[in-house]
Every structure is written in structure tokens, then in C-alpha cells.
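> Could you send the DNA replication complex GINS protein SLD5 prediction when you get a chance?

Sure thing. Input:
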Amino acid sequence: MESWEEEGLGLGLKKTDVEAMREAWRREKAAPEMLEFEEELVRRLREQMQLQEETGEDEDEDEDELMLQIQHMDLDRALFLLKAYLRIRLTKLQKHIFFYASQSQSQSHSSNLLSPQELLFCQRCLHATSRHLHHSLLSHLPPHYQSLSRQSTSSDHDDMLHLHAPHLDTFVFCKTTTHVGAFQLDDTGDDILDLVVDDLYVLRYNSIRALVQSRQIHLI
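Output:
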């Protein structure tokens, strides 16, 4: 685990976690799909914010006013980053609700793609959306065309889910955090790029997806 350094001026929130949340928000905002939920980071930041609020309530009236204002500003910044991170994830979840609902059903319990709260939201949103579509449209179609996931009951696969999937073949701005070296960008092996540490690139997300997940490349 990273060392927790206190931010300047002796504030209660930890610089490493606040900066990590800023980076998590940037990655999530730049990625066309939902990334793995930062469970430990969110938990730590919430605990620190709660402790900071409780400490602020116990401060003496003689406490330096400037210092208190700076602490409140620091708390507001952390709260903004946390809300922005969770909001962009909910936006993606709502946009691709059917796709992530199918993903959550097929993935293992150890997977950390969605938080428990996001999973509950996904289930409730899917139920409400499905009920609305069935009532307003699907119930008026022939029985073999009333499926949300298949074009017809004659289909062997849920071939409609790809329509709700995130578009991964899109270009993103990224920066390497380690020296990757020669990296194959396509399946044919014709497009190979030498990825050097701290260099900036514009690449297709699908080509570097594994590097993003392993934190060898940061989206910007």
C-alpha cells in the first residue's frame, strides 16, 4: 500500500489518496468503457473525509480562521473529485445498462468492475427500463420479437447486446508510465509501435486496453 503523506499545511486528508482519486476520475472520464471500481481508494477517502468533518466539528473557536477555511476547501475538493468519479461511472452505466447487466451476471463474484451500490442501481434501472419497453413497445410486437436481448426467439445468442456495448474502437489520448517497448497494435502484426516512458500518444483504445488496465498507460 502507498505511504500516506499529509498534504501541505497539516491538513487531514492524504495527498496520495486525493491525487489518486483525481487520476481515477481522469481515467474513467477518458475511457469509453467502465474501468474497475476503485473500491479501496473510495473507502479510504470516505473515511478520511468523515474523520476530517468530525475533527472540524471539535475545533476550538480560537482555531486560526484561515487554517479552518483551507481545511474546508481541501475537504470540498476531495468531495468534488469523489462525486465526479461516481457520477461519470453512473453515466456510463445508464448509457450501456443492458450490456453491463449481462456482464455482471456472467462475471465472477470476485470481479470488481461494479461496486455493490452500482450493481444494485444496475439491477433496478434494468428492471424499470425493461418494464417500460415491454409496456410501451415490445408487448405490441409478435411474441417471437419481444426479447430485449435477441432479434427473435430463433436466435441462439443474445445478438442485440452488442448494440448496447461501449464503442472501444475509438481514439484516446494517453501517456506511458513505464517503458513498454515494441507493442503490437493490431492482430496482423503489421502495426508495431515503440512505447517509450512519459511519451504522449493518440491510439485506439481497444489496442491498448490491456495496458490501461495494468496501469502501464494512463489516459489523459
